[in-house]
Amino acid sequence: MMTESRSQEEQEFLKNYDPARYERPSVTADVVIFTMDEDNELNVLLIKRGGHPFKDYWAIPGGFLEAGKESVDEAAARELYEETGVKVSDGIELRQLITVGAPDRDPRTHVVSVVYTALVPRGLLAIKAGDDASDARLFKVRRGYDEHGELSTYFVSSECSITMKHLAFDHGFLISTAIKRLQGRLSYTDDAFALLQDKSRFEIYELMKIHEAILFQKLDRSNFRKMFLRSLVDRQRVKEIGKYDAAGKPKTALYCYLERKDYDEN
Amino acid sequence: MMTESRSQEEQEFLKNYDPARYERPSVTADVVIFTMDEDNELNVLLIKRGGHPFKDYWAIPGGFLEAGKESVDEAAARELYEETGVKVSDGIELRQLITVGAPDRDPRTHVVSVVYTALVPRGLLAIKAGDDASDARLFKVRRGYDEHGELSTYFVSSECSITMKHLAFDHGFLISTAIKRLQGRLSYTDDAFALLQDKSRFEIYELMKIHEAILFQKLDRSNFRKMFLRSLVDRQRVKEIGKYDAAGKPKTALYCYLERKDYDEN
DNA sequence: TTAATAGTGTCTGTAAGACAATATTGC
DNA sequence: GCAATATTGTCTTACAGACACTATTAA
C-alpha cells in the first residue's frame, strides 16, 4: 500500500482536502459465525438485537467501523472477538463473503455492510451478548420443507425455531449466501478442518461428519476415505499420527492437519 | 430486504436517530474491467489520474458512492458506464471481487473500496476518460520476468509499459487478485463466454483463445474440443448453429451460447 | 445378539492430459 | 508450396460414485 509522499504538490493538496464534502454512508463489519455442535450439526451464532431498528429480532453479529482507526478486516476481527472471545491471531478462519449496500437496507441511514464468514471450533467458543444485544446463542442450521412445501433453511435453538425470512435486515440472505459459499468451497479448501475440535488429532470420520453437516447430505464412508487418503494424506496436507494404542493393539487411526501457506488468497 | 415498519416504537426511534453521531469512512466502487484484444491477449482498462492524490499515476476506474442515493452495485454500474459506455442491463458481467478498507490506503481520508470485476466484449467498448482522469486506455496484461528475475505481471499499451507496483493506491494488488479469481473461476463458470465478441456466433477455438489468455498458457486443441463438446454442448450450455456454408460445403462449426439463470449467485 | 462403527475391495463411467494423424485454409 | 488452423482418434491414468463384504465395538 503506497501512502508515502509522491510530490510536494500532493502534500499541498492533502492539506487543503476537506473530507466532509461528500455525503458518506455508514460501514459495518458483520460476521456469519459457524461451528459444529455435539450432534454433528452445523450451527450459526445469532444475537438478539437489544435496540432499534429490528429490536428483538435475531441477527448476525456486527458493528460499525470506526473510521480512521481500524481497517474493515480489523473491525470484523474485533466483532468476532467481542461475541465469541476468539481471536484471529489464534488461527481462526475469517474470510470476506460479500458486501451489501442498498440505500434502504437499514432504516436509520445508508449502511454498507462488509460481511465475513468465520469458522470456529466449538471448544474455543465463549459466547457473550455484546452491548447492543439482549441475547446470543447458537442455532442449528437445518434444511426442511416449510408450510408451503418449499425447501428452505431454518434455525433451531433449544428455545425457538426461526426461518430465514424472520431475521433482521437482509441477514437471511447473507447467511444463505454464506452457506452456499461454504458448500462450494468445501472440496477445494481446508474449510472443513477449521471446524474440527482439534486439528492436530482427529479421525477420518470426524472430518466426514463436518462435510456431511455442511452439505446436508450423507456421504459414503468408503469413498470419503479414499478421497481422504489420496487427496490429503498422499499430498501431505495431513499426517497419520498412529493407529495403535499403548499396548500395540490397532486402534482407529488418528491424523494431524499440516498448516500451510494460504493458496486461495493472493 | 425488510424495511417496512415493525412497530410504533421503532418509528419513534428512527425519527430521533442522528446519523452524524459516528465518524464515517468514504466508500468507493472500483471496477477492474477486462476485455480481449485483436491479438487474443487479455486487456485491462486503466485511467490516468487527473488529480491528487496519485496524480498522473495509472489506476483502475472508480468513484465515490453517493450515499443515500444508490447502492454500491449501482455505483459500480455507473462507474462502468461512465468509463466504457457499457450498461449492466446489456447483460455485462459485473461481479464483486473484494472490499478493502485499511485506514491509510488513501492519503485523503479513510476510504473503503468495494471492488468489482467486469468482463466486456471488445466490440462494445467506447472508452472515455471520466472527469477525474486525463487519459484512459487498454493495457495488455502480460506475465514475465522483471529485472530481478522474478515472475510478475505487467501492463503494456502502445505507449508505455508499467508494472503492478507502479499503479496508484493498492490497485496493483486488486488487479492481481482479480486475475487470480478469473483464473480460478474459469473452469466452473461462464466467464470466458462474457469475453466473446459475439456470444451467439462463435467458433470453438475463439473460446479457447480466451481461456489461453486468461491462464497465460497454451492449451491442447484436441483436449479443449473434447471438454467443449462434453461439458458444454452435451449439457446444453451451448448449441451448434451450423457447420455448412450457403453452398452446403462444410465450414468451421459455429456455436451459440445459451443464457441461463445464474448458478453461482444466491 | 444386535446395531453401529471402522476398514477394505471391486466395478463402472467419466474425464484429463499427452500425443499422433489427417484435413483444410490462406498466403 | 508452406504454415497455420481445424478436426478426429488413441492411450494412459485418475478419480467419483455405487455397492458388497468383513471386522470391531458398545449396548
What is the strand and helix layout of this fold?
The structure is a homodimer of 266-residue chains.
Chain A: H1 8-16, E1 26-36, E2 42-49, E3 58-59, E4 62-64, H2 72-84, E5 93-100, E6 111-119, E7 133-145, E8 151-156, E9 161-163, H3 171-185, H4 191-194, H5 204-215, H6 221-233, E10 238-240, E11 255-257
Parallel strand pairs in A: 1-6
Antiparallel strand pairs in A: 1-2, 1-4, 2-3, 2-7, 5-6, 7-8, 8-9, 10-11
The first copy, chain A, binds a DNA duplex (27 and 27 nucleotides) through residues 203-205, 220-223, 225-227, 230-231, 250, 252-253.
Q: Which structural class best describes the helix and strand composition of chain A? A: alpha+beta
Largest interface, Cβ cutoff 8 Å: A-B, 59 and 59 residues
Radius of gyration of chain A: 22 Å
Compute the number of structural domains of chain A: 2
Q: Which consecutive residue ranges of chain A, at least 5 long each, have pLDDT under 50?
A: none
What's the short version?
Chains A, B: Residues 26-168 form the Nudix hydrolase domain. Two copies of one chain form a homodimer. By secondary structure, the first copy, chain A, is α+β, with helices and mostly antiparallel strands.
